[in-house]
Every structure is written in structure tokens, then in C-alpha cells.
Amino acid sequence: MENSVYQDAVELTLSLADFERGKNSPDHSFFHLERMRLLCKGLGDPQLNVPSVHIAGTKGKGTTSAMIASVLGFSGYKVGLITSPHLHKLTERIRIGFDPISEQHFVDLVQQMWPSVLDVGENGQFGEITWFEFMVAAGFYYFTQSKADFQVVETGLGGRLDATNIISPVVSAITSISLDHTRILGDTLAKIAMEKAGIIKDRTPVIVSPQNLEPMEVIVAAANKLNAPIKKVSDEYKVVVKNQDLSGQSIEVISSRRNYEFTLPMLGIHQTENAITAIGVIETLEELGYLIKENAVELGFSNLYWPGRFEILRDANPVVIVDGAHNPYSMKTLVNTLNSVFNKPKVIVIFGAISGHDLERSLEPLSSLDVILIPVSSRHPKAIDSNIIKLAAISSNIVTTQDFETVDEGLKYSLEICSGRDLILATGSLSVVGEVSEVLNHIAPEIYPNLP
Description:
By secondary structure, the chain is of the alpha/beta class. Helices cover about 40% and strands about 15% of the residues. The protein has two domains: about 5-300, UDP-N-acetylmuramoyl-L-alanine:D-glutamate ligase (3-Layer(aba) Sandwich); about 310-440, Alpha-Beta Complex (Protein-Tyrosine Phosphatase, Chain A). Helix 1 (about 5-15) packs parallel to helix 4 (about 105-125), helix 2 crosses helix 4 (about 105-125) and helix 4 (about 105-125) packs across helix 5 (about 130-145). It starts with a helix and ends in an 11-residue tail after the last helix.
């Protein structure tokens, strides 16, 4: 098909309110599920046609979703996968297996769904459909058309009022909860946990990653209120990391059902927590009667490719790593992973951030490293000015270079000054990760119209 037809379809969808990229996001009181329910009702309620797994959390929910989808795929199921944000192209948000929806299918969806989009905006009394609502509904509609066996659905922001929360999942999962998006979700772990726990459904099993005491108490109370069986993976599974190198980590997981041994091509203790959460979901599906093939867990994990999460883009001359850490907890985890893989590394950090996250506290963990920080601004409309990042880094006593208006310029400079350093790390947001990956892997970026 002509690429211009696809571009026209993308631009049409981006005429909808885009709070993910737009600079003027509403407060949480704006969000509700009525528009989403109306839109999907007009499409025949496709969200109810395919058995669902629903994943919420602050950190790791996308990776856990990918792990579950991979295992189900190796069990022979046709799996729809909804995740956000995307790295390079918006079609990455809607996948069958790990294949993004084709440009032609996306154009077809826009044409088929647009009358319903307009009808909700004109006659629904709840305002116009947002871009995120459209993309989620498009995923549901596409999976129904594709006759998917499962849909694994990652929430966008929060859970209780997230556009994905109109499904009736067979199992839900809540990954690690930490402070993030505090202006929207609340400024305490308990408040954020309450929003995430909003995906728990009546008598529907919920799998919970290791948590701090405060969010765990909130999740348990919410599950008990709805008579939802709860599985705390920290009580159910023992993890042994046998060895690790740049290619990944060899892991044994011991459960009451069986032992699993596999090499996970993702580094960090947090990835083992994501893995046992995914195994908790898979074993629960088995308990519900779904057939999981004998080696599907091992094959699903060993063959997982989920870019942007401690991804090694170059393994030498110099080592280049990208990681989408964007909040204080994620950054602490990233620093811990660096220290466990490298011995007191000397790091050049290309750092860019998005407004709405805690810039100062996200930078703090980097001060424990031998680091030179290169401040950059990504193409994301909410990107924080690189000079502001520079000043925040200086106040955290981090050695800082000149700031750069683009990621590309910062990357080029990092390659010029990397002599004597162990590695280059690009982090602070997935938008920075995406742009570094595009340069080094020669991926053409998808450029969107400017937002108001």
C-alpha cells in the first residue's frame, strides 16, 4: 500500500486528544470508562470476545505482558498483545504474537471504526474519544477479527479508570508498585496501589509481584472485598540466578507444581520478579483448564525479545546499553543491575526525561556511579529541556557535559568522549531509548504532527 495512506490514517487518529504526548493533560477526575464502553458497544463489544489477561503496575507490566504472551504463543495459542508506549512506530502497540499490526490492517481499522468514533463524540454525551481509547479499542477489534485465542492487555496509566479496564479477564496481575505519575494517581504508595488494584474483578484470580507492605495491604484488601483469589509470587516461588553475562541470566524457578530452568535474555533482579509473576499467571491459567505445553515456559522466556529494557545495542567498542528507566525506583534498579553485571563501571549516561516524572529523584541514584552525564531532549512533546536536566544533574553532584537539543547530537558526542569509559548508557525515558536505537540500528523514525 502507499505509505501516504497509512500516514493519513495515523494523522487522523492523532487528531484525537492525546494526553500521553500532549502538554496539557487533565487531572484524574476527567478520566472515566463511559466513552470507552460506548465506543466498544458500537463495535459489538469486541473486548469480551477473546479470553483476557490484564496487567497493571508501575514497573515491569509491559515486560510481564510480553513474557506471558511469549509462553502462550509457544503453547500454540494465537495471542493478541496490547502494550504502551511504543518505541518506533505506533503499530507496535497492537500485536499478534510479537508481530505489530500491518499498516494496511491499521488503515482498515481506522476506516471501519471511525463512524463509531464520531458517533460517540457527537451523540454520546461524554465528549470525544481520546487517542489512547481509540488505540486500545482498535486492539480489541483487531483481535476479534483475527480470531485470537488470548489477549494480553497492559494498562496505560493506573488501572481503575484506564481505558483497558472494560475487559472481563480470566486472570489479572499487578506488578511492582512505586511512586510515579503522582499528580494523576496520588502521592502515596497506598493511593497508587488503590488505582492499580482497580483492575481486580469479582472472583477472578489476581497474581501479585513482590511489593512493599503498604501497597500489598491495599491489594489484598481489594481482592478480599471482591472474593478474588490472590497469589503472592514471593510466597509461591523461589528463584535461583545461576549465572549472568551480557547475553542474559540463567535462572531456576521452583514452584509447588514443578521446577523451571531457562536463560532469560534480560538482566536484573527485577526481571526475575517479572518472570515469576508471569509464571504465576501461566500456572493459574493451567489451574483454570487452559492447556500449557510442557516446555512452553522455558521456550517462551529463552526466546523473549523485548527491546528497551536493559538492552545491549553494542557489546564492545564501546558497550552501549539502553534502558527506559523513568522514575526513581526504576533508576535505582538500573544502577543495581549495572553494578551486578559490571565491576564499578565508568559510565557515560545519555539522559533525557519527560515532564510528569520526578527528575531530581530519578537522577539521584546515578550519583553513586562513576558517571559523566550528557543531558539531551528527545522528540517527545513533553521532553524536559536539556538545560533543565543539566542544572538538576549539577545540583545532584553529577559530572555533566554541555547539554544537547537532540538525542542524536548527544549520542555522537558520547561516542567521541567514550575512551577510557566502560560503557554508554541511554536512559531517562523510552523516548530517549527509541531514538538511540533508531540511530544505531538504522531504523527510520515515525514522525508525528506537532501537538497544540
